[in-house]
Write a structure and sequence with these properties.
The chain has two helices and no strands. With about 100 residues, it is mostly helical. It is elongated and about 95 Å long.
Length: about 100
């Protein structure tokens, strides 16, 4: 009977250890998820800044020197996108 009790105690200790490890892994997973979310937000912010800087660069190049055909098309596309966004905003305001 004593050996059965010892086996149960050993199994119980191992189960407790596994539960502690599981809890630690859960907290680590939660921490990693938070870190991932923060990094994704930083990435989005940096992408937005990069887009803004690229637009500013294009505008500066357009104002400083004559544009080649590729730059002209790029500038026209950007202007058309802005105009479409403005039109959307105006139509939303009119509703």
């Amino acid at each position: 009977m004593s050996t059965h009790t010892e086996h149960i105690n050993v199994i119980n200790r191992k189960l407790q250890q596994l539960l502690k490890k599981y809890e630690l892994l859960q907290t680590e997973t939660a921490r990693q998820k938070q870190t991932i979310e923060k990094l994704q937000q930083q990435e989005e912010t940096l992408k937005t800044k990069l887009d803004t800087l690229q637009e500013q660069h294009l505008i500066l190049r357009a104002s400083a020197a004559p544009l080649n055909d590729a730059d002209k098309k790029d500038l026209e596309q950007k202007i058309n996108i802005y105009l479409r966004n403005i039109d959307k905003c105006i139509s939303l305001l009119a509703q």
